[in-house]
Please model this.
Amino acid sequence: MLSETLPPDAAYAVLQSHDARFDGRLYVGVTSTGIYCRPVCRVRLPRRENCRFFSTAAQAEAAAFRPCMKCRPELAPRALPWTTMDASRTLAQQAAAWLDACDDAEASVEDLAAHLGITSRHLRRIFQAEHGVSPLQYLQTRRLLLAKALLTDSTLPVSEIAFAAGYASLRRFNAAFVEHYRLQPTALRREGGGAAPVSRLRLSYRQPYDVAGVLAFLAPRAITGVERVEEGGVTRSLALTHAGRRHAGWLRVSFAKAGEVGVELSPTLWPAVGSLLPLLRRWLDLDAEPEAIAAALGEAAVAGQRLPGCLDRFELAVRAVLGQQVTVAAARTLAGRFVERFGEALSDAPEGCQRLFPTPECIAEATRDDIASLGIIGRRADSLIALAQAWPTLAFARHEGSPEAAAAELTAIPGIGPWTAGYMLMRGWSWPDAFPPGDVVLRKALSREGPLLSPKAYLEAAEHYRPYRSYAVLHLWRRA
Model:
């Protein structure tokens, strides 16, 4: 099932030209081999009559095709239909996001339907209409492709890979792998099989990618003790929950090869890699479509601009509050003190990344004086405590519902206004169409050296950049 916007003959032309713009948005199944590939694959071009085209890897696998060992479909960037969707499409995309992050080996369609607040029958219908496969087929493909990546790029034991990919037992994992890929998991191990000192994952993105711009944005915001930005990459500490267990460690991402990001993980984070990979893709905005963004921003756009997200939504929210009405440098200083006072020490971590960002539970129990003693004004300390106490119930924290509803919940917390909520959604949700109201720098930029725009005219001027207003925010800040 191919997207209705690309007829089969046009899809074959994409395959002939190896057009990278369609990487992650188009897959070809070759009936003579039973294998499916990405359009960028450099194997011999198959005959047109032997090709079937699909919009997702899940559709190809549901049609009984196996992933190519050369182009590795599990590395492909993903398609992100972000905006202007009706309610059913929005629900279907939220369902897919829930499945992408699913770490429960016993998860069911009923669990997902309950999460979305709809019936399982309605869920199956809208999911099939949007993605061309059932929710369980989508989840199965996601888990198998993750396992394939770990078998190829890591030295984890197969039993640990089965758990990391979301399988309840090694027996279930082996059975699924043999059934769908018709080979044993160990057949994907690298020749030689020796244990490398560090396993490294690879994540693909659509080129171009403004590496210098992303690192230049992250560097002045890097919190002492948590993260370190260097030439060509970032190293940082992180704690996350996978399958009900907390995992804490460090990671390093590097942009050494065009089109790919290399990822190194501490041994303590490898078991949680299934939950970590979607976070990494959003943090570095690896699934963006550069040409569409450039078209929205205009001729002055920087090639390959990205919207840096976050790995920890609570961390991003706290940083947004600390950054209110102060410079980026001052906010970084306050955040460093905050981490030093409330963050947990991390052993065996690289220099500069030896503390974890404080948890919501820790800050919820702090007092105003505890936080104010760091040089943070009292009202802001109250806001941080209120944010931490409300965290378990916030739609923003769970990434549920619409951005507008999440913003309304955030602004109901004392000390969080529309600008701060907009910034949280822009980077904490990787929402591509946020536009923080009342931003002085943006108002000046949009006024184009004329009289300062009114708030209404300011928002009207931003309409030009839909559906990528968040990218316009970074573009205008950078230009200013």
